[in-house]
Amino acid sequence: MAPAIQAENLVKTFGDVRALDGVSLDVPEGTVLGLLGPNGAGKTTTVRVLTTLLRPDSGRATVAGVDVLKHPNRVRSLIGLSGQYAAVDEYLTGFENLQMVGELYQMRARDAKARALELLEWFNLTEAKDRTAKTYSGGMRRRLDLAAALVVRPPVMFLDEPTTGLDPRNRLALWEVIETLVEQGTTLLLTTQYLEEADRLAHDIAVVDHGRVIARGTADRLKAQIGGERIEVVVHRADLVADAVSALSAYAIGEPAVEKNTRRITVPVSGGAKVLADAIRELDARSIEIDDIGLRRPTLDDVFLSLTGHATEAEDEGGTTGKGGRGRGHGKGRAGDDGEGGQGPDKQAVAAGKEL
Ligand SMILES: Nc1ncnc2c1ncn2[C@@H]1O[C@H](COP(=O)(O)OP(=O)(O)OP(=O)(O)O)[C@@H](O)[C@H]1O
Ligand SMILES: [Mg+2]
Predict the structure, then answer these.
(1) Ligand 1 neighbour 83 (Cβ under 6 A)
(2) Which pLDDT score is estimated for 271?
(3) Which listed ligand is nearest to 37 at the C-alpha?
(4) CA–CA gap between residue 197 and residue 216 (Å, rounded)
(5) Pocket-testing residue among 304, 330, 337, 346, ligand 1, by greatest number of atoms within 8 A of Cβ
(6) Which residue owns the Cα nearest ligand 1 atom 31?
(7) Is the pLDDT of residue 315 over 50?
(8) Looking at the chain, which terminus has fewer C-beta neighbours within 10 angstroms, N or C?
(9) DSSP result, 145-204
């Protein structure tokens, strides 16, 4: 069976920036691919190419067996898209926004209404359904936009950072909605910056960096590759760092990372809470005073550090691998120039494709 989404060697440049540098991927029907990567990796650009909103310089792609470059209108009739920035009509109510999408797709008025109400319920927006979207909070807009992408139950869905900006309760609710969709047979490509999210939702993960897929596999495989959990210790004084590293090395299954200025030591371990308890006892036995200690699961930074030898921030200075430095100062908030601001009309073009 042909994959529901297939991309071969997609290249896209914007001036000097090689946003896509040969992206290839495939998503079998009925499965979820998580596209995981830091800011500017090329996630949104990949989604825009696959959803016909952007032409690549080279490469080819098919969605549901249809060539994206040759038959964009046919592709549009088969997909749903929720972009990174919510594209809702400010002057319509939540209900009207969803009803409008149904009508764009030529649903019967009664069906469009019923579907709108059902989706408002799923996304915890029933109480706000008669307010104009311009009074919605960021998270509410996000949810309305996601609901709009689900109006017509398309067989293939693209969700670009669907849970960014959602509070924990709504994030969980969205995960459940996504799981239901997938149970019903929808093929999904979602982008995320959270390993945890890809872990929960995706059958398969593609890690992207600098416009390339640098690793591919199940969450378990990637985690095995980067090795278990991490013990993170902050020692009380800088002169204790070396001692602590030596005390912890007995439990390490990989190279410990040290941030000198914060006195933080991160050690890959396997064995969970027991190892943590042992480590605490060992530090105590050596009278190494600590400010903080904890066990945590691998983060995107750990994945990157392990796959590429650098943290998510390529230009990261000072040897830290923390989250603070993430982001290359581009990829967000651009105006015009084919930027993300164009996704409102784009989405309607995708919707209107149904009629063509
Ligand atoms: N329309 C555009 N014009 C100029 N440069 C662009 C444009 N779209 C994307 N880029 C550049 O291409 C690169 C990839 O951007 P993209 O939006 O695909 O990243 P991303 O992985 O979605 O990042 P984020 O996590 O920040 O959303 C970035 O360097 C970005 O600045
Ligand atoms: Mg993006």
Answers:
(1) no
(2) 81
(3) 1
(4) 16
(5) 330
(6) 331
(7) no
(8) N
(9) HHHHHTTT--SEEEEESTTTT--HHHHHHHHHHHHHHHHTT-EEEEEES-HHHHHHH-SE
| Average pLDDT in the chain | 84
CA 32 to the chain's CA centroid: 12
Confidence check: pLDDT of 319 > 90: no
298 or 314: which leads in pLDDT: 298
Ordered structural domains, the chain, with CATH: 5-223+334-355 (3.40.50.300), 228-297 (3.30.70.100)
290-296: strand order across its sheet: 257-259, 264-269, 229-235, 290-296
pLDDT on residue 227:
67
**218 secondary structure, DSSP code:** -
Determine the distance separating the centroid of ligand 2 and the alpha carbon of 235, expressed in angstroms: 37
Instruction: List the 66-67 sheet strands across, edge first.
Output: 17-27, 5-14, 58-63, 66-67
Interval between CA 332 and ligand 1 midpoint (Å): 7
194 in contact with ligand 1, CB cutoff 6 A: no
| Ligand 1 proximity of 338 Cβ (cutoff 6 Å) | yes
Q: Give yes or no for a contact between 64 and 4, defined as CB atoms under 8 angstroms apart.
A: yes
Q: Is 60 exceeded by the pLDDT of residue 85? A: yes
Q: Which atom of ligand 1 is nearest to the CA of 339?
A: 1
Indicate yes or no: pTM above 0.85.
no
pLDDT in tens, 183-233: 999 999 999 988 888 888 999 999 999 999 999 988 877 777 776 788 999
Atom of ligand 1 nearest to the CA of 84: 27
